Amino acid sequence: MRRTTLFTAACVTLAGVLLTGCSGEDGGGDSSAVPSALPSIDAEADAAALATVTQTAQPGTAPVVDFTPPLSVTGPVARVVQPGAGAVIEVNRAVVADVVTVDGSDGTEEGNTYDAAPQILMTDEANMPAALLDVLVGAQVGARVLLAAPVAEDRTTLWAFEIESVLDVPAQAEGTEARLQPGLPLVDHADSGTTDVQMPVIVPSDGPPPEELVVQPLLVGAGAPVTADSSLVVQVTGALWDGTQFQNTWEEGAGKPIVLSGAIEGWRQGLVGQTIGSRVMLVVPPELAYGDEGRGDLIPAGSTLVYVIDILAGI
């Protein structure tokens, strides 16, 4: 579907070069390879190159982005093209934005959320390149922002953002406690070291892993249901069935923005219908996660995965 295509082009490419926060096939995030020998950064020349890019649009419509190709920069560079008039954007906030992605080599449009649904960006160092963070923090809702960055040694990508709104993101899930099914891992709590709340810790079960996907609400939130096309802000603890941890976004501080359609199948099946504000445990069998291939050094082949997910916000 168009949204997934856009996400791959616009978000994962940006994630591979600049971010850790876009969602992909880890239940949380995928990253493209970063070239090991990009040219040295010339910030003054990069700013001058981005200054040649113009865009025109009415509020809420995709901009016409105009420049003389090829556009080439040596490092990430951003600027506000049009100021907004809404709320001031602060650090550690979730902003809702539409984005058009353009190939700097020839001006070809690579993706357009105006044809699908907006994305969530987190204004923090863990999820956003410094160049974009510097211009977004202090800007106002309604602003249009350009970001250019090298995505390969000989290729630059341009992102044209329109900031639509700012979401309230609580520090943790809050809701009605649900009864835990027998045989599942337990959830303890510990200091995260980066937030004032305690993060969930997965305590493994002594029994064998289930063969089917298990969806276990722990706290039932009062927000809207998650859909297959939702963009979410989550906090995640992930462990193998034996309790070995392979993922913990709590230690990074802020929540992690994801697009559910880009997550592993176990997430896509397990989170649809859960409500914003909930804490959910997913026990994901290998065939709905990484199968016989595993993932890197942390997730061996054939692994059953346990996730505890706080669904903090979403659209």
Automatic annotation (TrEMBL):
An example molecular function term from Gene Ontology annotations: peptidyl-prolyl cis-trans isomerase activity
Family from the record: Belongs to the FKBP-type PPIase family.
Catalytic activities: [protein]-peptidylproline (omega=180) = [protein]-peptidylproline (omega=0)
Domain PPIase FKBP-type: 229-315
Keyword field: Isomerase, Rotamase
The EC number(s) this enzyme carries: 5.2.1.8
Enzyme's top EC category: isomerase
InterPro entries: FKBP2/11, PPIase_dom_sf, PPIase_FKBP_dom
Pfam families membership: FKBP_C
Taxonomic superkingdom: Bacteria
Protein name from the UniProt record: Peptidyl-prolyl cis-trans isomerase
